[in-house]
Every structure is written in C-alpha cells, then in structure tokens.
C-alpha cells in the first residue's frame, strides 16, 4: 500500500470490533503483498478542503464497488464470509483501500474490512426508484429504516461514510420537484448524523440530476459513465466547480468488457482513473470488483463491468488499476515538469509567513525555487524566510506590484507563481497549476483560496462576507479573473506586458494584470484543485480597512480602464463570480433546470440567471446614497408636507439591504464543529453585519479617491448636444463592419466608454458620458463605383435618466406652487444639477464621436474633414459619379 501520507492501508484482528490500530504501508516491488512500515492509531476520516484526512495524514480513496449480490445463507446481500475475506485480501493486494457497498453492511463485513485495512462507503438502502413520498406514513417508515441501518453500524471504525441515496431517478425528482427531494435528503443526512455524529455523509448523484443542491453533505459524489476522454475531462471540470470547496469523489467509473472487450476495458479504466486524480478528485471507486451482480431478484448476465470474472479471474483492467492504486502518489507531476519560481511578497508578514514557507517546503514538485521579496519590512520577515532556505530580496517599501516585479526579475523558472504571505499551499499545488497550463494553452492559471480550518470564528465570518478574493470563470476551465493570492503565469507573458503596474500598491494589481494579458491576446485558466489556504482578516477593524483599500483600488482601475466600467462605475463581469461571501439579491429566483423534452436530457443542469439591472441596484454600494437621498427628502417634510412619502421609501430601500444581508447570512456554510444553535445564530448575525458594513466601506474608499457615480468620465471635449450629420469620403472600398470597427477602435483609445449596438438596436455605437447622458451613432454607406464610398453618420444625444430628471423637476415645481420656498429651492437646485450633468455628459460623448470621425476622414482622404452640421440644415453634397 502507498506511503508518503497519500493513502493508508489498515490492519487489525479479524472480527475484532474494538481494534484501534492502523498500519501505514509502502508498496512492494511488482505485485504481491505490501510491507508494513509503521503503526498508527485508527482515527475517523475527516474532510479538509478538497481532500480527506486521517489524523494529520491525507487520504486518497482508491476504491472499487462491491455488489449487489444474491443473499448468502444468513440472508445478507453479500457472498459468504469466506469469499468476502478472499475478495478483500485480493483488493488490498492490488492497492485498493476503500470499498463501496450498496446496502447497509453487516458488522461481520465491517470487521473483515477493518482486518484488511479497508474503509467502507456504506449505502443506505431504500426505494429510490419509486414515488416514495406519496404519504407521510411511507416517508416516515423509510426514514425509520434508515435510522436503524445507521444505528446498526454506527461508530464502527471501518465505516468511511454513509451514502444516503444513490441516483434518485430524474423522473422521480421531476415528479416531486427538486426542492422536496433536497429536503428529503437533508432529513436523511440529519438522521445519519444523529446516530453516528463522527461519520461523513454524502449523496451519490448522476448527470441526469446534476442540478440537486445539497450543501449539507460532506463531500460531492458522482457516478459518471463517459467513454470519450475529452468529454470526461471536461465534465470533471464542471463537477469540480459544482463541488465548490468540498471533495469530489467519483463513486462509479467503469466499462463493460462484454461489449468492448477486456483490452479496451483496461485502457479506458486506466485513463478514467488517471484523469480523475489528475483533475483533483479525492477518490475513485471503479465499478466493480466482480462480474457477479444481482439485482431485481435475478443474476445480471448481460453486463461484465467487473475487474474480475464471476470466478474471480483477474482481467487486464485490474492489473492496470493496480499500477495506479499501488503507486506512492496518485497525483504526480508530469515527467517534463517545467521549473517554477514561487514568489511571495511580504511587508511585515511575520505573523503568518511561517505557514507560507512551511507549506512551500512541503510541495511535491521536482523543480521549483522560492523567492521572498521583503518589501521594506520592519519585523523579522527576512530572517524567517532565510531560515527556511528561501532566496530573499530586500527592497525599500514600494508596494505590492513593485515587489512582484522584483520577484519576476529574480525568477529563473518558466512559470512564475505568486502566493501571498498570509496563504499556504497544498502539497500538489504546483502540480495542478502546471496541469492547468497544459490543458488549455493558457498564459496564466489560478486556483481557489480556502479558509484554513484553524482560523477563528471571526475569520470564518469574514470569509463569508463580500469583498474577498474571488475567481471569475467564463467556462469551467477558462477564467476572466484569477485572484492575486493564487495565480501563476508564463514568465514570457509577464515580460511581454511589463509585469504589474506599480501604481497598485496594495490591491487591484491582479485585476489590471489579467486585463492586460487578455488585451495582449492571452487566455487565463483555472484549476479547481490548485488550492491555497488563505487566512482572512481576524478582526472587524482590519476587514473595514481592507475594504476601504479595495474601494481605492477600484478608483485606480476606473481611471486606467474606463472602458471596463459601466455607467454606474462598476465592472460588468462577463463570467460567473465564485466565492463564499457573495451577497444574494433579495428577489433572485431559484433558477431553472434544463431537463430536455419530457425530462429526457442525459445531462440536466441548473441555470441561475444573473440578476437583472433592477435587482442588481440593491447590491451596489451607491444604493446607500439613495437611502441617504430619500432620508434627506424626508427631512424636508416640515417644509413641505408631500415629502413625507420619502420616509417610507427610505425605509423600504434600507429594508431591502437588510433583508438581502440576512438572506446571505442564512445561506452561509458555517462550520458546525459541535457548535450550539445559539453560537451559529451569533455567527450568522456577524456575517449579516459584515454584508451591511462592506458596501459602506467600499463606498467610502471609492468616494475618497474620486470614483463617484456622478463623475465626468474624464472626457475633455464638449459640444452642445444636438442631432448631427457627419460625412466621410473614401477612395478605397471597405466593408461596413471594417469602418465601424475602425471607429470603435479609435473611440476605445480615448477615455470614452463604448458599447456596440445589439441585434434589435437602431444604432451602431454608443458612447457613455456618465450616468445621465450618452451619444449614439448610426452609419449608412453609399457605393459610388470604383471602390469609392460615401459614409454618412448620424450622431445624436440620448438622455439616460430622463424620468428621474422629470420627477425631481415636477417635485420642485409643485413645491414652488405651494409656496414651500425652502423645499422648492432645494429641489430646483437638484433638478438644475441633474440637467447640467445630463447636458455635460451628452455633449462630451457626442464630441468624442465627432472627433473620432474627423480623424477618420483625415486618414482616408486628402480633402478637409466635412464640418458637422445640424441635422435639419445638412446640405446634400455633390458626389462625382464613376
């Protein structure tokens, strides 16, 4: 059996229920029993991030399925004990350390498994293929049966976990609706934990019910039968993202040797298992140990998925599997692993950098260096780094981006991996990052950052609050953004874009770098198993300071990348944001399940639409400004009675923020760890408070550094907004798409925020001047023979917040009519301010379009640019014919 902490074999007295010893073993040479290495206490399996632990030792599940069988002489749905003993011994001989059974195992089978050092994933048998919730009495009877099954084996050290269900058919889920099935499975999970608190719980799913959301299980288990390697690898990436921060275990993989032949079975089983572990799965169970299979009261004769025949003759697939399961580690770096330079930048990182360096020292990768850039620290950071053998480069304090550039210049590896001084990696971190590069030809690859289990309750609450480092995925493998605490890049690409921008001293550098790499033609990847553990802020004061800093970084990014920001001064990410601390919109629906016609789709997924513009408003920090504005109007009620309606509106706006914070806190996946309900309630209250505080901190940072929703978009030109016609003559023919593309490119070189027209828009390009005004352009092309073209452009202003302007103006007029001079004066000033902002923004946007068209005409014609004229008076120019 494997050593090195990756997998364990087990030994004890046969049939001795109370055995408390574990034997960790190393693989022997070739085939044969493995040699005992050392003795360790037997402990239950625990989940840590995306993997399993026994004590402090990682455990990779190397399993096979066993059964179902015809009942033996004692009525148990397993072979006779003597045959089970021979099967288990043969499994261990071939590197297996876990067995999955589909029915509740009797104690004698668990004792035999413990004697051979096998962990058992125990299935809890109930009628999953029938309508089992038709009456409360039937449901209660099934729940009671599950309770008795768990009670019969509770506490046995050989039990790895209970599978509370296996592939509830899609038609049954569709019949009841997924919510009822999810509630039923939650009930079974609670029963299992009540009877056996220290044993893990899972549900085994299948692609046809992929959409089931089961946050209460300890790990994600899936049966998948795909015989095309590319499709299987792509689906694994999807399952890893569905599993989120939990381990993913493939509980059934296999090939029918009766239809495909034993040679083909061996080939497919080999790559199925290798792909699973290479993707980061915490375990695999190959279906199955033997061709002997009994179901529905009869022997199944037309399948042969077994690794052995009914007579237990090994097939080639078993030998292929033994080559993987018997290895020292199931996750190995590629043979031609490139050199990686790991760069950790630190300013006064003494409290946490030891964890970082210890984690880097444990990396299981053949060729890497560790570079610590000491960015002007005044503590013992540099001395600690040298004590771990790291290469230390000390500089004056210049900020995070400058320090990362120092690390880049010092690096000798083909790949430069960045990790923060308050994070530490899993041993196979670099292996998975390198695999990510090779899977998609990416210029950079990132991975998830998880909360270390040793962090305190405050840090856990912060981890569930908004504003933490998140990754944004375009697909299951391609990223739009990867966070700076866990990102790696090809060195040549970093040098091509000039490294990080030094103006980002504490945050925002990773966003800027990702954008510049993508602008240069690079693609970013994501590997869900390239895990680092990232300490969160341990106090509310430090969290507030961090979020204010993020607001400042947003302001810096907006100045550099105005085209990346929408009119509300926020980044409209194209991909999906992944993270624990996302605030849930108050009225966001439960999503829709893609089921296919009559529920026939083989892969059924849950599609959660992005919140619409209206629902997204309450997620913006600027919503707090709206609350303050309404409260200000309410304060004018003594001056004008009709304004009393502003108070209930302000209360509704504030309640929306409060309710979505409470909803987000209720959905936080807090660790239970024996906590009482009162303690969990207290922690959820802290999470809700952080959801309220974070937008205020971020808003404060944004406003302090000039990122306000009413700002001018740094457009220097201005013209009085009015409809215009602008014409361009060209002696060289180009397609309409090329002309518009050139105009768009010219506008993007300015600070203007440009949008393309959609399928139903009567305009081609739009330039946004701010939250209140924009200008639009439409083009027509006249063909004049000989490749000559006459381009006509119509440009006109478009008011974006006309209802708001009219509403405030109407209020002002009504107040003045009632002779409420104070209220009327304040509202009139507000209306004039809105009008001025609208004129300013429309005129600036229109001037940018006119300037770009003038430059275009100067490039394509020797004639003087046609002066823009009012639409009503535009002359018809005489154009020579061919």
Feature tags:
882 residues, alpha/beta, TIM Barrel, Spore Coat Polysaccharide Biosynthesis Protein SpsA, Chain A, 4 domains, 10-stranded mixed β-sheet, 8-stranded parallel beta barrel, 24 helices, globular, disordered N terminus, disordered C terminus
How would you describe what is shown here?
By secondary structure, the chain is an alpha/beta fold. The chain is 38% helix and 19% strand. The chain has a 10-stranded mixed β-sheet, sandwiched between helices. Strands 6-7-8-9-10-11-12-13 form an 8-stranded parallel beta barrel, surrounded by 5 helices. Strands 32-33-34-35-31-36 form a 6-stranded antiparallel β-sheet, covered by helices on one side. Helix 8 runs parallel beside helix 9 (316-325) and helix 14 (457-463) packs across helix 21 (677-704). The longest helix has 40 residues, at 821-860. The protein is globular. The protein starts with 20 loop residues before the first strand and ends in a 12-residue tail after the last strand. Mean pLDDT is 85; it is low at 1-41 and 863-882.
Question: In a nutshell, what does this entry contain?
Answer:
Helices cover 38% and strands 19% of the residues. By secondary structure, it is of the alpha/beta class.
**Number of discrete helical segments:** 24
Structural class: alpha/beta
Helix content: 25-40%
Q: Taking Cα atoms only, what radius of gyration do you get, to the nearest Å?
A: 32 Å
Low-confidence stretches: 1-41, 863-882
Query: First CA to last CA: what distance?
Result: 86 Å
CATH architecture assignment name of the largest domain: Alpha-Beta Barrel
* Spatial sequence of strands, sheet with the most strands: 18-17-16-19-25-21-26-24-23-28
User: What count of domains describes the coordinates?
Assistant: 4
Q: What number is the mean pLDDT?
A: 85
Provide the CATH top-level class of the largest domain: Alpha Beta
Question: How many runs of DSSP E, i.e. beta strands?
Answer: 36
Biggest sheet features = 10 strands, mixed
Which superfamily, in CATH terms, is the homologous superfamily of the largest domain?
Glycosidases
CATH topology of the largest domain: TIM Barrel
What general form does the structure show? globular
Strand residues, percent = 15-25%
